[in-house]
Amino acid sequence: MFSGLFQVTRCSSPPPRPAPAGGVRCVFNVRTFIEGWLRDNPDKTWLDMGSVAPSLPTKQRVMFTYRCQDRGDWFEILSMFDDHKYRRGWLDPYTGRQLLENETWIDKDKKILPRRVWCLGCKKCVVFVEGDYDVREWQDHRDFCEGITGMMKIEIVRSLIRQNQNPEVLWPPNSLDPIVLVGFRM
Description:
By secondary structure, the chain is an alpha+beta fold. The chain folds into 2 domains: about 25-80 and about 145-180, no CATH class; about 95-145, no CATH class. It has helices at about 30-40, 50, 60, 95-100, 135-145, 145-165; strands at about 25-30, 65-70, 75-80, 115-120, 125, 170, 180.
């Protein structure tokens, strides 16, 4: 009689959540990155990479770290961004503005407007469609911005150059094999 009421049903598992904002941002090959940079800048050497753009400020530099993978010239960028996607409830514009003002990759020289901000990585305007000061839309841009990722890669190559006595040989951390960069002048 009550068997239908107390019948055990199996529920499917919940869908997987997307990758969090903090975590592995990308994996890249230092040698390939330097070769691509040299192709785009034929009048420069790879040692000029440090002088083309200013070093990242500490506030931006502490938002990521890197580590060498098993293969000597492959690196993993690990980001430590705040994740606003899973905040409970709706964010009011005042809270959204406060969160955007604390973001390190938003251009503070340009005014933070209710419906847009300027990205320091790609130098583009990020327009908010959903609402005023929508930090979640900013996070969608920030987590996948190629300009931010490119600036992180350049900073990693700079730090590898600074760590080594001989600028023609890079010894990645956690690696037994150096990256020999002799002959990288094109």
